[in-house]
Amino acid sequence: MMDTLIGRPYGSVMEQQHARTAQTHPAPLELAPTDVVEAIRKRSFATLATTSAEGRPHAAGILYALSNDRLYVSTKASSRKARNILENPRVAITIAVRRAPVGPPSSIIFQADARVLDLDDPDLRQAAASGDLKAVTSHGELELPGGCFIEIALPRKVVT
Asked: How far apart are CA 19 and CA 58, in angstroms?
């Protein structure tokens, strides 16, 4: 049985929209994985979506730094972000990528696993020692009372 959308077969509505889109939008640009990682590295702001154990979603703007294919985010251990990740490590990230001076940006979107790191975590300290985390550690974040970091491993696949 075919699903319907507003009384019409869903497939036909989607086919019509796809045909219109194909006429007005060129085929998507294929990017190499290294191009995507470089685009992530050049930025520092993203939206992080988490979900509590009860299934309540939460989205927040974050500042991040990239080191060894992992995003690092400074936050308080008491923050909703950290509490949600401790309950459910699955997260979603959206990074806006401006390609033109006007109009809405494109984006890099992915789902990943995250973990909350104590400030003395060896992986965090190693990434900080490399200098990769200056953008998120230069204001004393590694000594922040009640602070922690969120580490998000880049997945094998992202949507651009």
From this structure: 35
Cβ contact 108:41 at 8 Å: no
First-residue to last-residue Cα distance in the chain? 32
Question: Residue 70: which of 105, 41, 108 has the closest Cα?
Answer: 41
Give the 3-state secondary structure of residue 10. Answer: helix
- Nearest CA among 15, 25, 110, 120 for reference residue 71: 110
Extract the tokens encoding 29. Answer: 């640009």
Give mean pLDDT in consecutive 10-residue pieces for the chain, a chain of 160 residues.
Answer: 40 47 51 81 95 95 95 97 97 89 86 97 96 94 96 86
SS3 assignment, position 73: strand
The torsion angles phi and psi of 20, rounded to 5 degrees, stand at: -65, -45
Rounded Cα gap, residues 112 and 93, in angstroms: 8
pTM attached to this predicted model: 0.77
Alpha-carbon distance 141 to 119, whole Å? 9
Closest CA to 50 of 124, 138, 130, 116: 116
